[in-house]
Specification:
Chains A, B: Keywords: DNA damage, DNA repair, Endonuclease, Hydrolase, Magnesium, Manganese, Metal-binding, Nuclease. The structure is a homodimer. Chain A is α+β, with helices and mostly antiparallel strands. Chain A has helices at about 15-20, 55-60, 65-70, 90-95, 130-135, 165-185, 205-210, 215-225, 240-245, 260-265, 310; strands at about 45-50, 75-80, 95-100, 110-115, 120-125, 140-145, 145-155, 185-190, 240, 255, 270, 270-275, 285-290, 300-305. In chain A, strand 6 and strand 7 form a beta hairpin. The structure holds a DNA duplex.
DNA sequence: CGTACCATG
DNA sequence: CATGTTACG
């Protein structure tokens, strides 16, 4: 029986108490230390994307155990909420090539691309967007010899859809941007895309349709227009939602709201994805949702393995 | 080992876990259930004042165990932080005559007088004050046949003494007010007076002098002017700081900041007091600081017993 | 440090 | 519900 009513969680940075004390079941609050995944398929690089809902918070809840176990070649983090480039040697030694996009609002948004391989170029802007400051911290493009990786933390449409118009502006310019890149090199778009593409990508499609941010007509149509551009858009490449193509009927989600016990009830959304230029699809060897990694964040990571030459040339 | 990193303290409203589990030592976090005090002296009423630093919070940490053990006839609460009159039957059944002064700022300040005896009149204003809204929630005057009880939660002078001028305005009008009342009936001024009257009323007098709110020249002089009005103030009655008169050299405090482990280090302030019209002093039978009641708040209660007829006529 | 709030998701 | 502000003491 504790004698304290303090609100501070007493979780060690290195060894979360409940991760050590785990009985083998996921705690849903802190990641266990003993995670393991199959080794990567020969000849591939492994990419992972994870919305971590504050790096500071996730770090206290087992963030590093996932990273160690997954050991991705490229790790995209969204909603980092960092205000400056972190100096954590755990990250910098593992990923020599780090790019942190940081919002102008304090502890808000934030995207990172952490890579073992050196990119040819890095960019954190969205060309043509009328309000660059609103884009800050939401997009990073890294160029490799065989592809562009575009990492995004896409705007949330907001309570009462009050920022849906702003999101539509993002979608308009982002669509043009990714289509433009695709004309130069194949593109891997990954991150928190903040849209459930179709009814099977969220638990309560009917009740949320056109009401809840992430599943409105505007957002889903914008997404479909990237996958399958309208006939009017001549010469524009198609894209593929990799996990969905590999798992046509599965209902696995990447996000469970902390509210209403959504995780326990299975009320989730698939918002975190890999969307790749159609001509890359044949090179994808694996794509999975890491459902067991719930606890350090309200999102779980998604991982994809693709032939090495796409990244390393 | 807990599996949760939730910040919500899991303390039952009725039986705080650590209060039940106590080993006999004060927990400094939650009050034990088994508190007891000597019965009141025959022929007296018992008055208690307690800054509870949010009634909602204190209620989760054993507030009622103190009230039950002390069983005061009049209980003054300061810094209640309530936004509306509480409907708690524990309070209303014990104290049929409740007055709640509530601030205009949400969950800020707040004073209450809870009484077993019916007052002849009740007032929550400070006459003549130029900014009545800043006074809201800081003062209650209840009239009994033999006295006025004035309960106050006096303004804090603020970090960097930024609200000292405002406090001086309060002190100017409050002094005139209490002196005026004293001409009609003797006065019991009680509450969080938010001043350490002299060097022995705080742990680090030297380092705090004229820097820290509560121990500046302006505040201490204003307080002394109430105890002993200057010769120029003809016909104005004197007042007595009861606890200090009864304990001329004791260093007991009523407030220990939550910061810097002040309670453990004994770094406290005596800010909560009974100050009575000089002609009432002979009727005071007891006045004590309840040092053992640390935990539900960063202040402890102060209690005084006075001949019943002062209140009940 | 602890109790509140508000914004965001 | 959880992560961050901010104000206040």
């Amino acid at each position: 029986a504790t004698q304290s009513t303090s609100k501070k969680a007493k979780v060690s940075k290195d060894l979360p108490e409940s991760a050590v004390a785990t009985n083998g079941q996921p705690t849903n609050k802190v990641l266990p230390v003993n995670i393991s995944f199959p080794p990567r398929i020969a000849g591939t690089v492994r990419l992972s994307t994870w919305n971590i809902c504050s790096l500071a918070s996730a770090s206290k809840k087992g963030f590093k155990f996932y990273v160690e176990a997954e050991d991705p070649d490229v790790l995209v983090l969204t909603e980092t909420k960092v205000n400056e480039v972190p100096v954590d040697p755990f990250l910098t030694s593992r990923f020599p090539h780090c790019t942190w996009a940081i919002s102008s609002k304090k502890t808000y948004s934030g995207t990172a691309v952490l890579s073992k391989h050196k990119p040819l170029s890095v960019d954190t802007k969205l060309p043509g967007h009328p309000d660059p400051s609103s884009v800050k911290g939401r997009i990073i493009t890294v160029e490799f010899s065989g592809c562009y990786i575009v990492a995004t933390y896409v705007t949330n449409a907001g309570q009462g859809l009050k920022t849906l118009k702003e999101k539509n502006v993002w979608n308009e310019h982002f669509t043009a941007y990714i289509q433009d890149l695709d004309k130069k090199k194949p593109v891997i778009w990954m991150g928190d895309l903040n849209v459930a593409p179709t009814a099977i990508d969220l638990a309560n499609a009917k009740s949320n349709w056109n009401k809840t941010p992430g599943y409105t007509k505007d957002e889903t149509e914008a997404f479909q227009n990237i996958l399958n551009p309208p006939a009017s858009a001549a010469g524009v490449g198609k894209f593929v939602d990799v996990w969905r193509q590999n798992h046509p009927e599965d209902k696995h989600y990447t996000y469970f709201s902390y509210r209403f016990n959504c995780r326990t009830k299975g009320l989730g959304w698939r918002l975190d994805m890999f969307v790749v230029s159609e001509r890359l699809v044949e090179k994808v060897k694996m794509c999975e949702i890491r459902s067991e990694i719930y606890g350090a964040s309200d999102h779980v990571p998604v991982v994809m393995e693709i032939e090495s030459d796409v990244v390393t040339g």
